[in-house]
Amino acid sequence: MIKSDTLIYLASRSPRRRKLLKQLGIIFRSFSVNTIEEVLDGEHPVDCVKRLALEKMNRAKKNVRNSIIITADTIVVLDKEVIGKPKNRKDAINILSLLSGRVHTVYTGFCVFNQKTNKSIIDFEKTKVEFRTINKDEIIDYVESGSPMDKAGAYGIQDDFGAVFVKRIDGCYYNVVGLPLTKLYNALRKLT
Amino acid sequence: MIKSDTLIYLASRSPRRRKLLKQLGIIFRSFSVNTIEEVLDGEHPVDCVKRLALEKMNRAKKNVRNSIIITADTIVVLDKEVIGKPKNRKDAINILSLLSGRVHTVYTGFCVFNQKTNKSIIDFEKTKVEFRTINKDEIIDYVESGSPMDKAGAYGIQDDFGAVFVKRIDGCYYNVVGLPLTKLYNALRKLT
């Protein structure tokens, strides 16, 4: 699908993102970049995820040369409040209780940069996600599994429990997993 | 999640359905049932998928005893026209060309029947799927991969190409893969 003579790097430590990129049949390497993932006062979610993807790119591009680099950042927003990764199990329980029976929005910003041509694309995707009402026992069982701990919003839509917490989505599914595949694929086609 | 003393059977030959049910951590066995999957004149898609799920159940329940059985049927509808599995590669190319740049609807009907209690649930799920404009080369590459051939609508949203053909969905993602997990999970909780 994407055939590139230029090496492709995914600058993300997320195993979900690596899996999604593999699904596209793209051959790539990955490394992680450290950024402080904080939301600025009054910053719109779209500006936030694009800024964080760009900040990650600015760090990532120091690590490799003559390559195509991909960075991304995902946040979960409920009632204009950004929900990050849970701090601990109690926090995960609180987050999932908040999401129960309601609609939240997942934003992913991403950046693709071709170091050879010096061309880049920065874009975002947004998906609405509706949870069914979930009960305390289900939440505790899920948190006990450990899976929510490294995920924004304390759930993975591709998980065992995550899959049956979500009633419906409106938008790109893969964006909720961590990478908006269709938009990313189009960006890669333009830059390879 | 679902802990049942009663054996669970999935009466479907679809590897996607088996994978989805495994994702829920459900222990089950599977076998296939043969039904003529045809749409009756003037039949609404909802009636059609529920009827076909029930017809499959009527056959399936003769094969096992004292068990919980799951059957399902998925169809793709574009402009009130039901699109089945492609007959051959040329048909797959035609179907994908039709879906390009447009919105279609995926319906799955499912039936869960507990032979011990004689209780059953029959329900359906519907999801709107929007394709981006896809070009002839992409369609041919995808059809060459062989993947579209056993799938209603000639695509799998979970495939390499399928994933990047879909721009957005409105509804349950897993319904498009072949089983509406959240609704099915709720049905199983009620019947186990």
Task: Please outline what is shown here.
Chain A has 192 residues and is of the alpha/beta class. Chain A has helices at residues 15-23, 45-60, 89-99, 136-144, 160-165, 173-177, 181-191, and strands at residues 7-11, 29-31, 67-78, 81-83, 103-114, 119-131, 166-171.
Give your account of this protein's structure.
Two copies of one chain form a homodimer. In chain A, helix 3 crosses helix 4 (136-144). Chain A is elongated. The first copy, chain A, has one domain: Maf protein (Alpha-Beta Complex), CATH 3.90.950.10. Chain A is of the alpha/beta class. In chain A, strands 1, 2, 3, 4, 5, 6 and 7 form a seven-stranded mixed β-sheet that branches. Chain A has helices at residues 15-23, 45-60, 89-99, 136-144, 160-165, 173-177, 181-191, and strands spanning 7-11, 29-31, 67-78, 81-83, 103-114, 119-131, 166-171. At the A-B interface, helix 5, strand 7 and helix 7 of A face helix 5, strand 7 and helix 7 of B.
Walk me through the topology.
Two copies of one chain form a homodimer.
Chain A lengths: L6 E5 L3 H9 L5 E3 L13 H16 L6 E12 L2 E3 L5 H11 L3 E12 L4 E13 L4 H9 L15 H6 E6 L1 H5 L3 H11 L1
Parallel strand pairs in A: 1-2, 1-3
Antiparallel strand pairs in A: 3-4, 3-5, 5-6, 6-7
What is the CATH architecture term of chain A? Alpha-Beta Complex
Helix share of residues of chain A? Answer: 25-40%
- The helix/strand class of chain A is alpha/beta
Distance separating the two termini of chain A: 11 Å
Work out the helix count of chain A: 7
Largest interface: A-B, 26 and 26 residues
When the domains of chain A are counted, the total is: 1
Quaternary state of this entry equals: homodimer
Radius of gyration of chain A, in angstroms, nearest whole number: 17 Å
- CATH names the topology of chain A as Maf protein
Shape of chain A: elongated
Which strand-content bin applies to the residues of chain A?
A: 25-35%
Which CATH C-level class of chain A is it? Answer: Alpha Beta
Give the low-pLDDT segments of chain A.
Answer: none
SSE order of chain A: EHEHEEHEEHHEHH
On the 0 to 100 scale, the average pLDDT of chain A is 94
The total count of strands of chain A amounts to 7
What about the largest sheet of chain A? 7 strands, mixed
